[in-house]
Amino acid sequence: MTGPSRRVRLAGIDIGTLTCRLLIADFSPDGRLKDVWSDRRILRLGEAVDQTRRLHDAAVDRVLQCLREWREIIDASSVDAVAVVATSAVRDATNRDEFLDRVKREASFEVEILTGDEEARRTLLGIRSGLPAGVTDLLALDIGGGSTEFILSRSGVSPVVRSIDIGVVRLSERILHHDPPTIEEICQAREWVARETKSAVADMGNFQTAAFVGTAGTITSLAGMAQGLPSYEPARIQNYQLQLSSIRELEHTLLTRKKADRTSLPGLEKGREEVIASGAIIIRTIMETLEQAGVLVSDLGLREGVLIELAKRPR
Predict the structure, then answer these.
(1) Structural domains for the chain
(2) 209-233 burial string, b = 16+ CB within 10 Å, else e?
(3) Which of 170, 224, 226, 231 shows the smallest number of beta carbons within 10 Å?
């Protein structure tokens, strides 16, 4: 189905394991998004879900407070349509129906729980909307709080998607118990990530001929840190070439500091100091396993893909 024949204003919310994101944007007939309002908050909805398989009351309350505030913003923004999606934490929780009921009752949002494949498909829509000219074939990497997706996309061929149950929150809670992590914990984490990565790409064929592109908070944060940005600047993040050598240096800095001491590092978003070390382990290990010397950073991803998908739906 084609997009709208006129400019429409859309709102999309991504309820993630670590971060919740809001984007209100105008979608034009030529397929472009123009941001009107955006917000993101590290609320850690997936806290302890890996161990208990339940969303905990305090985490749910944090998210609901945020969603109520965003409902007011959306209602005041003359929005034509809204889409709200949830990913790994809600997908894995045994009490997800209770959470969805509360969101509907208290914030008036209907939430779609995305499968891993559908999450990857919409993430790919977002990534492709901002790639530099000439990039056609790509291997996209989306490191989330509870899972990581590998998406091999080539022109004229259906994407190949593989998801592994390793994310920054899950890795932190399952393995990195000390602050800072011990050498044994780091080695255990690397072995787990490398093993799952090899399994994920085993049947993907010659993915090394595709451009390697990364999205989501770990990679964009490391891109900001590599550039020493005092605050987050999307224009400086989008399509930045982040080198493995820089990731190794940043990882060393992060793993030799306590969480509280990471907050002073330029470019690190407040609230991410607890999981950025696990994120650095994940991206470094994946790149070394896949023999990638650099990653093209995308500031666009699932949130934008949700809006692009929404624009195609009849209203």
Answers:
(1) 8-116+302-312 (3.30.420.40), 132-298 (3.30.420.150)
(2) ebbbbbbbbbbbbbbbbbeebeebe
(3) 231
